[in-house]
Amino acid sequence: MEQSTKFFNQIPVPIVEADDLNDFEKLLFSEIYTMANSYGSIFPSNGYLAKRYGKTKVTISNTLSKLQDKGYINLEYQYSGREIEKRFIYPCLNKLNGGIKENFNTPKRNLYGGIKENFKDNISANKSINKSNNNISDKPDIESDLEKRFDNLWKIYPNKKGKPRAFAAYKKAIKTGTTDELIKAGIENYLAEIKAKNTQKSFIKHGSTWFNGKGWEDDYDLSPTQYYKNNKAVKGVPQWSNAKTLKDREYMSDEEVEALINGLGDT
């Protein structure tokens, strides 16, 4: 069965007073914060949280992403080979009077006597609790988180061909430490080059090619392409080649034709 808070949720005052959080974001943070106090390491699935609060998995995923973007939680992933095996959620709380600053992943004194000094170190220490109180988080939930992040990047990529291969390359890049911000900056630079060079659509790289080639690591030339007009004079069509002359040719002797051609330079 899932980890759960049974009797009450704790919510720090800075969270209650946080102007950048809506009510459900505060409620979800309180769930995470209370689990952290109870278990040390926490990994509830999106499905469990959705059922507990009467929300959809998509809403839970979006809310967790917002909490992470605002600096209130960290989402970390444990891998088994190339596959994501488990997702951990850590609250980030330092100053109880005035804000969210510190990351629980760094060693510190216990707060309220319940939060562990280092949540990462307590992953192994809480194995017995985890085995009896929790199943491994649903892999589809973790995959959904990555798909959502990838889709945000895919929306701005100009040639949407080869999405499955591009997604596979994206997951591999994320695992090796590449950030969404770096990839987004690379796409924006590529878009700027396309605009500057007036690149035709047929010459824009397929998404699968760009992601597999780590296009965010490329250098892009943003200088505009120069176009030059061809001012070379074009010589007119010889008079003897026009339709009327060709028709008259049928009635001209060879001597008259030769004389006409020889006289072209005089016109």
Describe the structure.
- This protein has 267 residues and is mainly alpha-helical.
- It folds into three domains: 125 residues, Arc Repressor Mutant, subunit A; 62 residues, no CATH class; 36 residues, no CATH class.
- It contains twelve helices and two strands.
- A hairpin with a 2-residue loop joins strand 1 and strand 2.
What topology emerges from the helices and strands here?
Elements: H1 13-16, H2 23-39, H3 46-53, H4 57-69, E1 73-80, E2 83-91, H5 122-125, H6 127-133, H7 139-154, H8 163-175, H9 180-197, H10 207-212, H11 243-249, H12 254-262
Antiparallel strand pairs: 1-2
Number of strands: 2
CATH architecture of the largest domain: Orthogonal Bundle
User: What is the global morphology?
Assistant: elongated
Q: Low-confidence segments, ≥5 residues, pLDDT <50?
A: 95-137
> Helix content range of the residues, please?
40-55%
| Straight-line N-to-C gap | 101 Å
For the biggest β-sheet, the strand order reads 1-2
Decide which structural class fits the backbone: mainly alpha
Total domain count: 3
Task: Name the average pLDDT.
Answer: 75
Number of helices: 12
Strand content: 5-15%
At CATH level 3, the topology of the largest domain is Arc Repressor Mutant, subunit A
What is the CATH top level name of the largest domain?
Mainly Alpha
Rg over alpha carbons: 34 Å
Order of helices and strands: HHHHEEHHHHHHHH
**Main β sheet profile:** 2 strands, antiparallel
